Amino acid sequence: MSGQTRLTVIVTEVVAVNSLIKRFRFVREDGGLMPGFSGGAHTVVEMDDNGTRRLNAYSLMSDPADTSGYEISVRRDDTGRGGSLFMHNGVKPGMKMVISQPVNLFGLDLRAKKHLMIAGGIGITPFIAQMAQLDSLGHRFELHYAMRDRELGAYMKELSARHGERVHAYYDLEKQAIDLANLLKIQPLGTHLYVCGPKGMINWVLSTAKAMGWPKGALHSEEFLAPPVGEAFKVELSRSKITVEVGPTQSMLEALEAAGVDAPYLCRGGACGQCECRVTASDGEILHYDHWLSDEQKAAKTHIMPCVSRFKGERLVIEL
Ligand code: FES
Known about the structure:
This protein is α/β, with parallel strands linked by helices. Helices cover about 20% and strands about 35% of the residues. The chain has seven helices and 19 strands. The protein has helices spanning about 85-90, 125-135, 155-165, 180-185, 200-210, 250-260, 295-300; strands at about 5-15, 20-30, 40-50, 50-60, 70-75, 95-100, 105, 115-120, 140-145, 165-170, 190-195, 220, 235, 240-245, 275-280, 285, 305, 310, 315-320. The strands form four sheets. Strands 1, 2, 3, 4, 5, 6 and 7 form a seven-stranded antiparallel sheet that branches. Strands 10-9-8-11-12 form a five-stranded parallel sheet, sandwiched between helices. It has a five-stranded mixed sheet with strand order 14-13-19-15-17. β9, α3 and β10 form a beta-alpha-beta unit. The chain is globular, with a radius of gyration of 20 Å. Bound molecules: FE2/S2 (inorganic) cluster (FES). The site of FE2/S2 (inorganic) cluster (FES) has 14 residues, from loops.
């Protein structure tokens, strides 16, 4: 549900990792230790973007063994709604911010004999924490990290220094690509596969693994979608009996929250299913952007995920 435990933190470091990515470090305002977390967890960062309240989820990338602070990385999206731009331009060391207690929707299965990790771009961040955790536990793992070029290959140097030959880099602009079929073929029985990155990469990795007979329980993926921008629309809430206007750069979930509605959420990125709402009437097109609802559910227009999905039409009524 919403109302997760919130922590007031101070930004102690803002580091430009490359031309697109900045790293942020948060410590507790009261000087205490942060709550513990496991590799793959994310936190939701609250922002006041010129009067618009934005809540964006970011994977924790710091070592789970170190609870003196949390670190996240944010990739700037110049065409997005403004959350990443706010983080890049508006957040400075010394600032007070509010973040949620970590939630893990992409946890390691520690029963695995080996952990095979595939990252694309900024999808590297949860793996940085996971590898630190696996390293201290003495578990077997291997990372295959695809990125556009050396300049944008964030953290590659640090990862190679810490994990040596367990880390493999692939640069798109140098025409390097993961030989996925072969990689999946040579893994020992009991290996679990984890993938985080762009949607196309996740689909490719999961569908290849499934076609090769990998058991469903050994496949793990995470993709946080940034809520897309779009045309403004209205949504009627059948229980609260109010109509909420959703602006072009606002998600439906943000608009509900701004109207004082206590709507449930966890990931705010179309992945966890927590915000699912029943649609009781609709005369237009539901623009489904999540990867939670099945294709059948999407086609049936009976449910919507307000954290990322939008509507085009005159009337949308949801049960909330
Ligand atoms: S909050 Fe996770 S799917 Fe919407």
